[in-house]
Amino acid sequence: MSHYHLYAIGNALVDTEYEVGDDLLATMGVSKRHMTLIDAPRRTELLGHVQGLHHRRTGGGSAANTAVALAQLGGQAFYSCRVADDELGAFYAQDLQANGVATNLSHTRAEHGQTGSCMVLVTPDAERTMCTFLGVSAELDSHSLHPTDIAKSRIYYMEGYLAASPTGLQAALQGRQIAREHLVQLALTLSDVSMINFCKDGLLAMLADGVDYLFANEEEAQVWSGSTDLNTMVQTLSALGKTVCLTRGPKGSLVIQGQSVIEVPATPVKAVDTNGAGDMFAGAFLYGMTHHMDLRTAATLANRAAAQVVSQHGNRLQTQQLQDLLRA
């Protein structure tokens, strides 16, 4: 019997979200719509540009958002990560606990240093731009793994952002090996175009001989396949995973299994903030896969959850919002 429906590993990041204009993005010199890794001096510089602006603070990190969504829907989730012994680290650990996600943080001592954080810059067109300071998360390693819990999980989920961290990548791969040995299903999200452009070898290592579930958005699929032709994207991604979810924003999503492609229409909404949409989709879809839903039903739930999160500011939903979607 599986103890967890999902065991995830990723960067522990506290998100601070600001609403900004394109002119400020240009002044700050950041790449719109993508994630950029920054160091401490650059973080201080960027914070100077947004000083005084209204902001919202939430728990974040791509795989953590996915684990939280699955737990809010009623699944059992575990999250491996690394935080520092500081105020943000305490906030992050408490946030996971409050959302019903088990974590290694309740068993291990926090490190000296700074907890990772992410500046999320949302423009009026609803696009999100992320500037990520990894802090101690850059040193995430195998000490954060719980091998027994991996072995007792249904799905082992890897965050593609870990491809940028040598120790984080090795931890993800060690967990992958444990999962494979115990017949636990494997899942990966490509995370961001920047990971494909600069850290593709790490993503290929996480893919290895293939995964059971692969998540990618349309831009990531285009860059990975080197084509804007949808059929080429589908054929390229289908070789990487048994079940591939290709999210296409207002065009809905495709669920690909070999030569079979299921088109699932989007829920029409006015998008105000796309931060967390892909993470939410993955959490809801994997909840469906671990709770006896067929592919179309799971993807429909995932589309609806993603639509709800983009129609508000912030990377997550309240538990009641997700529960209402599940009952609808």
Written account of the structure:
Helix content is 40%, strand content 24%. The chain is of the alpha/beta class. The strands form two sheets. The protein has a nine-stranded mixed sheet with strand order 6-5-1-9-10-11-12-13-14, sandwiched between helices. The chain is globular. The mean pLDDT is 96.
Provide a short characterization of the protein structure:
The protein is α/β, with parallel strands linked by helices.
SSE topology:
Layout: E1 4-9, E2 13-19, H1 22-28, E3 35-37, H2 40-50, E4 55-60, H3 62-73, E5 77-80, H4 87-98, E6 101-103, E7 116-122, E8 128-133, H5 147-151, E9 153-159, H6 166-181, E10 185-189, H7 193-198, H8 200-207, E11 211-217, H9 218-225, H10 230-238, E12 241-247, E13 253-257, E14 260-264, H11 277-289, H12 295-310, H13 319-327
Parallel strand pairs: 1-5, 1-9, 2-7, 3-8, 5-6, 9-10, 10-11, 11-12
Antiparallel strand pairs: 2-4, 7-8, 12-13, 13-14
Helix pairs in contact: 3-11, 9-10, 11-12, 12-13
Task: Offer a few descriptive terms.
alpha/beta, 9-stranded mixed β-sheet, 5-stranded mixed β-sheet, 13 helices, 14 strands, 40% helix
